[in-house]
Amino acid sequence: MIAILDYGVGNLFSLRSSLAHLGLDAVVTADPEHIRSADRLILPGVGAFGDAMEKLTAAGLVPVIKEQAEKKPLLGICLGMQLLFEKSYEYGEHEGLGFIKGQVCPLEPDLADPALKVPEIGWNALHLLRDDPLFQYIHEGEYVYYVHSYYGKNCAESTLAVSDYSIPVTGVVRAGMVYGTQFHPEKSGETGLKLLKAFAEL
After folding, report:
1. Sign of the dihedral through C-alpha 47, 53, 57, 61
2. Half-sphere exposure of 196 (CA within 13 A, CB side)
3. Which positions are catalytic?
4. What is the Cα–Cα distance from 8 to 29, expressed in whole angstroms?
5. How many Cβ atoms sit within 10 Å of the Cβ of residue 73?
6. Are 97 and 81 in contact (CB under 8 A)?
7. Tens place of pLDDT for every residue, the chain, 202 residues?
8. Spatial separation of the C-alpha atoms in residues 88 and 66, rounded to whole Å
9. How many Å is the Cα radius of gyration of the chain?
């Protein structure tokens, strides 16, 4: 069973629908006991980093996540991926969950092409930097769907894949059993479904 963590941030319906399409048992929950009994965890998220961390903390989920991430696979999606980092500079400076070494920084100042729009919204090719079981059903250059204005930085040791947006934008990260995708697998068509299928088989 996959537990989708519900802390008031994120569009959970499309994610749960994607998992159901794959025939996977998933529950949307903020109950620590449900989280502990799950085989895998997904941390979704949209919105601002600081607000999301406050809601995770208020829900009492931070210690549960840290405890369970040592025992079972965890996948952070979009803002959920960013929360896995040590720190974010979105509207100030905020501490993250600390699984991934590095920071979440604004995309716009780093772009080599100032004509590119921020947020990055749309499809982009995924370039696989390392082999990983998460990629067992997908191939180099498949397209995934991004919506973001911030990105993971100084995280080369954890980066599994990037997409080009005039700079290499961190697309997938991993530290131990903790994974993150900046793009939305649940909005990325067949490629996203194949990635979720692989996560369910880790």
Report:
1. positive
2. 32
3. 78, 184, 186
4. 10
5. 22
6. no
7. 999 999 988 778 899 999 999 999 999 999 999 999 999 999 999 899 999 999 999 999 999 999 999 999 999 999 999 999 999 999 999 999 999 999 999 999 999 998 999 999 999 999 999 999 999 999 999 999 999 999 999 999 999 999 999 999 999 999 999 999 999 999 999 999 999 999 999 9
8. 18
9. 15
171, 161 in Cβ contact below 8 A? yes
Tell me the C-alpha distance between 45 and 77, whole Å: 7
Q: What is the pTM of this model?
A: 0.97
